[in-house]
What does this fold into?
Amino acid sequence: MSKYLLKRFLLMFPTLLGVAVVIFVLIRVIPGDVVELRMSGDRGSASQQAIDEERVRFGLDQPVWKQFATWVWGVVRLDFGTSMWTGAPIGEEIKLRFALSMQVAIMATIVAVLLAIPLGVVAALKQDTWVDYAVRIFSIAGLATPSFWLGIVFILLLLIVFKWLPPMVYTPFWVNPWQNLLQLVWPALAVGYRYSAVATRMTRSAMLEVLREDYIRTARAKGLVQKLVLSRHALKNAMLPVMTVIGLEFAFLLGGLVVTEQVFNLNGLGLLFVQAVAHRDYTLIQALVMIVSGFFILVNFVMDVMYAWLDPRIRYR
Amino acid sequence: MRRYAGTLAGLLAVALLALPAAAQDKPRLGGELIFAVPSQPPSYDGHQEETFGLIHPVAPHYSTLLRVDPFDKTGTKPVGDLAESWTISKDGLVYTFKIRKGVKFHDGGELTAKDVKASYDKIIFPPAGVKSLRKAAYAAVAAVEAPDASTARFKLKWPESSFLLNLASPWNFIYKADILAKDIRWYEKNVMGTGPFKFVEHVKGSHWVGKKNPDYWDKGKPYLDGYRALFISSSSAQVAAVRGERAHIQFRGFTPADRDSLVAALGPKIAVQESAWDCALMVAMHHEKKPFDDKRVRRALTLALDRWEASKNLSKIAIVRDVAGIQVPGTPYATPPEELKKLAGYRPDINASRAEAKRLLKEAGVPEGFSFTFKNRGIPQPYEPIGIWLIDQWKQIGLNVKQEIIEASAYHPMLKRGDFEAAMDFQCGFIVEPDLDLGRFLTNSDANYGKHKDVAIDDLYQRQARATDPEERKKILRVLEKRLLDEEVHVMYTLQWHRIIPHSAKVKGWTITPSHYLNNQLDTVWLTE
It folds into this structure.
């Protein structure tokens, strides 16, 4: 078990290094330049001399390998540098946005799990009945509905019917829980619904597969009550693929809610990502990619640990 | 007597009707103005930035030497801000400003001419490594002096007609000399001025808060207790914010469709102010690429445009409206309509213009169906509708134009590289002033993307810049305009942008101007409830 976990843990580092190389090169290949963008403004003009001076200030006149080495050395020391657009430390730029995105991700995951697991289990148990059909329609509709569209519908409904709009400024939960929930419950519902649709489908199919296994039949033959058969034997085993889906979706939510964040004007990582790319803010883009991919890798690692806990065959391998 | 009685009764009735209006027009103290800002400030230093994302939330913290009259709709009338009065020497080479006494910085320190000098030295003569975007605009300045605490003096190398207005630039915040002496970059990350509002907080990507400065030099102002700027990038979220009364106003501008939806939803709770906008989309044609090196071809391209018809139709869907020359309509140096109609591409008879365009293309040896690529910036408003319109218009004279949309971030480098045949060029100004708007057309300008070489334009520009008599300046400008847009067609203007600000009817004391960089100090703004 420990050998398995150690192997998984050590694999994280070459993956991160690969990500670092790819993002560093890619962002420099695409046309556009943070200095020209920042200096041209709305008037669309800036002297070449001023642009060159600014490039020197950012170290962009250095050879690419040197820029990469400087950056990686900083990352190793957990120093991501400063934003080329705002001049503020990257940590300062990300801190608040990370908290908001993490909370939306957690809330959407709670919504998704609360909907997906009961619905998926019920649909599997009542296969091909009206209950199953209703759950299937609900989940397919969720898959077919983009979160941002549902978000727009929420906003319009609140505006037109209730003449009310959620708060537009993020208040941390510990400062004012009510204000915080008033703002974040809507995106969490919009995102959680689509998320739950994926997980419901997965729960249903995994449950159907597990319920046909020999050990379930054996458990029933031993005279175990249905509740225990489901909770101890069926659900635990069916959860393996469901956990994978939930884990990956959770990691995705951290930086992938670009449009939903725009619709609800959430000051999250997704929006910051888009702005950083639009500004060609190299240092910020690199830091965000490293953080989000690091989070993905970490979630995968946690999933691996969960797998080992849920499935003894992995543990004893 | 009966006749007088009737007149008196009429006057009384008018007076009674006017009473509620007069009461309403009396500024009310208190309240927090909430406005949406579609962009964000990169740094906090106005001297080195060029985005309204800085001006809108930051301007209320600062004063400038002069400012543009907040009630002047043309946005071209300079009035004193920190300057109480000023004199100009007869030769136009020395400007002397009397600085107000008793003006206090937000840290309690007193403002003197020394602070004005230090701030302008930073703008005009920045030390190595310090960025100043508007340094070139003050090339005429030889020195800035502060002979005593209440006098600031600018010495010029040559007279410049735009100088006074240029000193009303909303970017030229007056900083504290002592702070600049200790750390010239301090203002990049900190805020401390003499403006009507003190800085409270900036939560990056979220909001900016300012509170009333009780020691503001203009006693009785500001009327508001404070303000809150919400950074909202999505235009639909901005509209929702105003509609849901989460924001009173957004100072940049909305589309005609947004205006209509807000008016339909909020009725009398919304007020709308509109103005010609000091922003223009132009077509740059690369003078070193065939066939655009031939002025007959360039002239044909501008003759194909039915600007008058477009003005009627595009203004319904895009943020453009007026047909204009080199200056914003309604401003002092704008082209009179009768003059405008004499320029190529501005004549009312579009059929005659297009017939001439076809003839010119034929003479230049451009075959029917000639195709070229027009590069456009990947921004919806108003680039997309204007781009589509241009292609349609050029098709009317037998040209086959392919549009290539370039992502906004990569657009400016593309223009600078000259990697285009014809491309959309753009400009937004902070004050309508020929010197500021036309400098880009000089042969050696970094923004001369079409790479034309025209000493006549250079000469006319210099002459108008140094003309101290406004009438003489107008005449020179008309000659310059004719050469630029008609005889040589170095560039072609499309339609003037149109600024539309629908805002809560509770907001009073704010007047729209042609520039979205102006009138953001908020000292005159008040809320009815």
In short: The domain at 276-499 of chain B is CATH 3.10.105.10 (Dipeptide-binding Protein; domain 3).
